[in-house]
Task: structure prediction
Amino acid sequence: MSVQHPQRTHPRVIRAAVACSDHQLKFEKISLAAPRRNEVGVRIVACGICHTDLGFISPGAVLGHEGAGIVDQVGSAVKNVKPGDHVALSFQSCGQCDACSAHRPVDCEHFSTLNFGFSRLDGSSAYPQGIDGHFFGQSSFASYALVTEQNLVKVDKSLPLATLAPLGCGLQTGAGTVMNTLKVKQGDRLLVIGTGAVGMAAVMAAKIAGAKEIIALDQHQHRLDLAQELGATEALKTGRERNLQGQLDYVIDTAGVSSLDKLGQDALKDGGVMVRLTGAGGATLPRRRKILSVIQGDSVAQEFIPKMISLWQSGSFPFDRLLHFYDFEEINQAIEDTRSGKVIKAVLCWPQAS
Ligand SMILES: [Zn+2]
Ligand SMILES: [Zn+2]
Result:
């Protein structure tokens, strides 16, 4: 059946999970301005929940930064996508500063404004007053998001969008740290502290890289069991760690627990490198040991997301085993299950998702 669509009236009304004061989210109908020249309107099909979302819950905020969906509308300056294209969303960058021009979007000089500033770069907002949107340039806990070409990645229409959604932050961060930042190679020894989605992605990537020792450390036995299935050569339960003094090339800390961070530092051999994916800063330790603070696994999403997809298709990056799907309406339950560690990666799906 062919239906003639009338000219769209703006602002568009969308459904968004808006945080309220009791730290619960509530679905509301809100208006969203039309895409600007450089913006792309995306009908969201699914969105992963990342721990960074939980840290930003405050009244009026529309969070969500692992969205995936279908392009609905494009601004006049948009070149690379058209309505109907399928896209996975990632972190935002400006596309114009020195770092972006040098193909280093994680170092974008506007990174913090564009991802955590709840506005466009010029300070304006497409959302009504009192609503904080544009989180990571997407705010995908909603039926619709305004993004740009900098934070979308076109994907093949045959791929399941709900499965791809979480590639845009957590999985990219863990796998990118191993592959892009540390360039782990055959025979290397590493420790991954915390086996949530980020840590599990690091474990799988280290296995692909041929690391000799991949030690996973976590407090949850069910996660350690899965980490071993996915490539960890040894599982250590928190509180029952063995002595790793000076043995490892790399430590990847995804947990941010200070006693474990210290254990990680001590486990490094001379010249070893520890990466903190916890937001804590870097440092230099004696004997050429380094601590790096890494963002998004130093990834260029348009390159790294397709790489992860092809590794998944080949069977060597089975990240779909980490996913637990929820209806979007169950967002508060999904957040609770994420907080408690019951699920590794919750993915919210609107009814049309397949
Ligand atoms: Zn930039
Ligand atoms: Zn995230």
Notes: Residues 1-7 have pLDDT under 50 and may be disordered. Residues 12 and 32 are 5 Å apart (CA to CA). The chain has two domains: 12-168+318-349, 174-295. The domain at 12-168+318-349 is CATH 3.90.180.10 (Quinone Oxidoreductase; Chain A, domain 1).
